[in-house]
Amino acid sequence: MPVMAKKKARVCGAIGIDLGGTNVRVGLVSAKGKLIIHHTFLTKQARNRSQLLNLLIDYILLTKREARRKGYAVCGVGLGGPGPIDVERGFVYSFTNIAGWKNTPLKKILEKRTGLPSFIDNDANAMALGEALFGAGKGCRYMLALTLGTGIGGGLVLDGKLFHGSHFSAVEIGHVSVNENGLPCNCGNRGCIETAIGNGYFVRDAEKRLRAGQKSLLRKWIAEGQKLTPRLVERAARKGDRFSQSLWRQAGERLGGALAGWANVLNPERIVIGGGIAGAGNLIFKPMRETLKKKAFPIAAHSVKVIPAKLGVDAGIIGAAALAFSES
Amino acid sequence: MPVMAKKKARVCGAIGIDLGGTNVRVGLVSAKGKLIIHHTFLTKQARNRSQLLNLLIDYILLTKREARRKGYAVCGVGLGGPGPIDVERGFVYSFTNIAGWKNTPLKKILEKRTGLPSFIDNDANAMALGEALFGAGKGCRYMLALTLGTGIGGGLVLDGKLFHGSHFSAVEIGHVSVNENGLPCNCGNRGCIETAIGNGYFVRDAEKRLRAGQKSLLRKWIAEGQKLTPRLVERAARKGDRFSQSLWRQAGERLGGALAGWANVLNPERIVIGGGIAGAGNLIFKPMRETLKKKAFPIAAHSVKVIPAKLGVDAGIIGAAALAFSES
């Protein structure tokens, strides 16, 4: 009687790719959202689209081989990229800060060259899905995620699926005007919430008020050569600097006012907030939650919990893998 | 051989109830959204909830009998009411302007007493669904509907189903602030779009500017005893009155600015606008569309058509019946 070859049972995993203007991260994520393997390389290592595609394919195939050795079967590839994408066709219209990607049928290319089902979405959506399936939104049916960085990105996850809108451009939540007479925004509108609390505006506002003669610990630190960043304002606030605390309070109140409107429209169970600015914790979360409770409809305010994102720096890669788990 | 009784083939219809503070309308609606039979009675005819319930049941059973005679089989009852409702349980939390309805298990009562599957939602949602299935939103997958009246109501229909949010309070779109320093709103927030273009505010704004000495045909008409209403301002605008035209333009631009934000978040294919204020046609639609195109993201702006509602005064009753068609 022939001896049967022992076949090791494999568990399912997905390859996630977090494609950014500075770094590209490629990794294997388990079906429970754990990052098992990961690689990082500099985006600039590739001089054009074709070189970057070759690198992506090499890393996918490398990760696939490593996955097999660790007992994983790769069920698909997910990629989150910085720009507008036709999610159904996996077609990249363009990428911000990565030249030469205009009109790239990325899904088709990846599937042809790796043999793996591939799913493409923008990075904010990927992160939102990651938080919904494996992070701070786990177990809830209606989750809105925001990333507060240079800009403000967002994603809405309904019953475990991303909401894309009719032409895949939904949840551009940084560009809802909260003040029709406010500062002009890059997008052409005025008073977008991004102009009120995006990174750049946060710093600009601080500079303006310091120049106007506000007393603050920040003056000393800046005179000593430190750069004015949200992180520096956070440190000063934690040391009791009133001015810095008031900057955070203002940012929190503004964001809370905007969240009140979105809670009235979307009535989510959770609003998950990540990105640099969210790192300030209660300095921004406390005034934000208070303002939301005060300004939203009672039912909407009581329905929703506003909590920090959980996945941190791995959000992009885990979220990208989540695209494959959600669709495959 | 016994003669088989001839059974007439029946087509499916639903009974729609548009329950308002002034009138109640009950009717039979065909599966194509045509109003076949309808009855109206004054809400005040009933002195309390129990009397109003009895009237509703009587009219439902009457309509059901008439329906049979016309060859329709009634597949269900839908009711749109003025207030917050737990849609899953068909439970009325309260009705605005109709006393005594706090915490009414309306679905249960109707089903027990009529034997027909019943579906309850708020009136703005019912109207939105009616427009989506049978009116201006027909054939589109992502439709946002607005009703501009004393307040501003809204409904979002995705793939033929209403979006309710986690606690059935979604799409309270009149209460998104477009100006954090704007007028205080009844809801507790400031600068809600309702305070910028709701009926009352429209009139208040006109009065204020007339008192400030603005030249206008309206002065003469008001002196002659006519009441200042949006309709009167519309008539003056159509007669070439510059002041009245500017009031409509301002309302259109404000609403267009708000629509730009919602288009960026919801990325709908169509925005359907009904209610009294929308009756002004191009006086408000033109500046609204122009502002939307200017202020929304290009993809979102190009995705969306902003069009008037089609069902007019029958929107409530047809929309209510649509609740039964959509769920049964």
Entry keywords:
homodimer, alpha/beta, Nucleotidyltransferase, domain 5, 2 domains, 5-stranded mixed beta sheet, 41% helix, globular
Report on the architecture of this protein.
- Two copies of one chain form a homodimer.
- Chain A has 328 residues and is an alpha/beta fold.
- Chain A folds into two domains: 13-133 and 314-327, Nucleotidyltransferase, domain 5; 140-309, Nucleotidyltransferase, domain 5, CATH 3.30.420.40.
- Chain A has eleven helices and twelve strands.
- Chain A has helices at 49-69, 106-114, 123-134, 193-197, 199-211, 217-223, 230-238, 242-266, 282-295, 298-303, 315-327, and strands spanning 11-19, 23-30, 35-42, 72-81, 85-86, 91-92, 118-122, 142-148, 152-158, 161-162, 270-274, 305-308.
- Chain A has a five-stranded mixed β-sheet with strand order 3-2-1-4-7.
- In chain A, helix 3 (123-134) crosses helix 11 and helix 8 (242-266) packs across helix 9.
- The radius of gyration of chain A is 22 Å and the shape is globular.
- The mean pLDDT of chain A is 92.
- Chains A and B meet through helix 8 and helix 10 of A and helix 8 and helix 10 of B.
